[in-house]
Amino acid sequence: MIQPNLKAMIAAAAFSHSTGRNLSSIYDYSVGEHRSVSVKVSGSNVDGYDYISSCHFGGNIPNLYHYGMTAHVQFKPVQYGKYTGYDYGSGNHFEVTVNGNNASFYDYGASGWTNYSA
Predict the structure, then answer these.
(1) Which among 50, 17, 35 has a CA at the least distance from the CA of 117?
(2) Is 86 helix (H, G, I), strand (E, B) or coil?
(3) pLDDT confidence of 84, banded at 50, 70, 90?
(4) Rounded to two decimals, what is the model's pTM?
């Protein structure tokens, strides 16, 4: 299972990459609250900060890193608004689909969806 903070950061990166917008928070429907994250994507460069873990998240697509969790993440755009990837820390694949202001994150390790909005 992929850690909730990491899921939120990946979903935020997908939002920012697909919409071209910078994000300052993301709403996590699984816990019913906003997660304090910031993400800016410029080209293939992801620059983010996870305020919950007080650490940076980023790198160059497809290779991202969450510094607080020491988690390497493969994050690949496969078509507009759709991403696949792999969390090396948990050993699980995932996919994220962005549609407007909503994103659905599927964690193959947990066999479940987490929904977000920006």
Answers:
(1) 35
(2) strand
(3) very high
(4) 0.95
Q: Where are the beta strands (DSSP E) in the chain?
A: 26-28, 33-35, 37-42, 45-50, 55-60, 63-66, 71-79, 82-87, 92-99, 102-107, 112-117
Q: Which two tokens stand for residue 85?
A: 């990837």
Structure tokens at 49: 């900060």
Q: Which helix (H) or strand (E) holds 15?
A: helix 4-19
Residue closest to 49 by CA, chosen among 62, 60, 41, 58:
58
Q: What are the tokens at 62? A: 């497809």
pLDDT number for residue 52: 87
CB-count exposure of residue 114 (10 Å: 0-12, 13-18, 19+): buried
